[in-house]
Design brief:
mainly alpha; 3 helices; 87% helix; 0% strand
Length: 46
């Protein structure tokens, strides 16, 4: 649910144009790491 809107192809295309390549890859890395950590925390709680 977290990565769905963050990784839609149309959104990524627009972000790549606006942010530039370096910040775009930082954005992708942040989304992946945040999603992984959030998933692990939710699994520990439930």
């Amino acid at each position: 649910m977290i990565t769905g809107p963050a990784t839609k192809i149309t959104n990524l295309g627009a972000l790549k144009i606006v942010m530039g390549m370096k910040r775009f890859f930082l954005y992708l890395a942040f989304v992946m790491i945040f999603s992984l950590v959030t998933g692990l925390i939710v699994n520990l709680i439930i």
